Amino acid sequence: MSRVGQLVATNKSALQKYMSIDVPDADKTKAMYVWIDGSGENLRAKTRTLDFVPRSPAELPVWNFDGSSTGQAEGSNSDVYLYPKVIYPDPFRRKHDKLVLCETFKYDKTPHETNLRHTCAKVMKQVESQKPWFGMEQEYTLLDLDLHPFGWPKNGFPGPQGPYYCGVGASKVYGRDVVESHYRACLYSGVMIAGTNAEVMPSQWEFQVGPCEGIQMGDDLWVGRFLLHRTAEDFGIVISMDPKPIPGDWNGAGCHTNYSTRAMREDNGIVEIEAAIKKLATVHDEHIKCYDPKGGSDNARRLTGQHETSAITDFSAGVANRGASIRIPRQVAEDGKGYLEDRRPSSNCDPYAVTEIICRTTCL
Ligand code: ADP
Ligand code: MN
Ligand code: MN
Ligand code: MN
């Protein structure tokens, strides 16, 4: 994020005049196609009018965009295809308007290098009978348009961490309006949002998505992120998914990934959980490469061994240990079944990459 902006607010009552225009053909649908761009982190979207209400992605036309403007193609051969994959109700336009989550394909009809959904969907199909469930905890930071944390003094820092996590009150939490609005947008769209909380660093928040089975984890988290950026836009607030937005004695942002198979959820499933952790221990470096969009270098700023993280070079696991790579929640140890928490993925991870490698390592 390079732009240092100012709030260019338009007149919202002028907007109302146009939003209340009666549109004659009530069957026309605005379909906003959404995709992941060449950064592997940012989202793009554009809209087309349809003369029907789509019921399944197969009814939707394949579309394309200028990949040279998204870091996904050269100018001389710039068309990248959009293949519709999942339809969500659009909470911004409502009625029967839709958000359409897409995969990107190249001119030769092969998946684009930045399309990590394609192989994830294949692996999820292969391991379908093991019923893999995920719950991801998306941490993020609210920024002003000058890219300074929202609500922080402009020439200094807020008081040290301590009172902010799950805080309440004007001096403890900043920007709750965005969080509440986003929550409703997710519920309207059918994104499996599980909850929200204020985080350890002021202006840092979390929303959880899950439990979701298979490919739905990546789909719902990406759409949840889209809804967050889009909601915050209305408030003149920027969302940062940077894993360590403020260096120093401030917590970073992760995307803890809670995971279970059917066997882990059944009685004495703890044996399965421990077997999975044994496998994960042997491929730590391979996982770290998949846990942020820069092959580990982004996450290296966060996984220092401080601030409730494990060091990026070490693998560890423990019951209720928030300084470990993998945590077994206390309740899971007591019940002898449940799930594990992989605390390594970065806030800006691609959930398709994360869930795919977890299943490859533990299920195949
Ligand atoms: P933490 O205590 O680490 O902050 P959270 O409450 O933020 O945990 O998130 C826990 C996540 O785990 C939720 O998204 C929830 O849906 C998910 N979850 C719960 N049970 C399971 C399970 N059996 N398998 C996978 N994910 C699960
Ligand atoms: Mn959490
Ligand atoms: Mn958290
Ligand atoms: Mn967690």
Concise account of the structure shown:
With 364 residues, the chain is an alpha+beta fold. The chain is 26% helix and 23% strand.
Summed up, the domain count is 2
Mean pLDDT: 95
Number of helices: 9
Give the radius of gyration.
21 Å
For the record, give the distance between the C-alpha atoms at the N and C termini, rounded to a whole number: 38 Å
Instruction: Give the number of DSSP strands.
Output: 13
Shape: globular
- CATH topology title of the largest domain: Creatine Kinase, Chain A, domain 2
- Based on secondary structure, the structural category is alpha+beta
CATH architecture of the largest domain: 2-Layer Sandwich
The molecules bound to the chains, other than polymers, are: adenosine-5'-diphosphate, manganese (II) ion
The proportion of residues forming helix, as a percent range, comes to 25-40%
Taking pLDDT < 50 over at least 5 consecutive residues as the criterion, the unreliable ranges are none
Strand content: 15-25%
How would you describe this structure to a colleague?
The chain is of the alpha+beta class and 364 residues long. It contains nine helices and 13 strands. It has helices spanning 12-19, 117-126, 176-189, 216-234, 262-265, 270-282, 284-290, 330-335, 351-363; strands spanning 29-36, 43-50, 63-66, 79-89, 98-105, 133-143, 193-198, 204-213, 238-240, 255-260, 317-319, 326-328, 340-342. Helix 2 runs parallel beside helix 9. The longest helix has 19 residues, at 216-234. It is globular and about 60 Å long. The chain starts with 11 loop residues before the first helix and ends with a helix. One manganese (II) ion binds next to strand 6. One manganese (II) ion binds at residues 137, 256, 341.
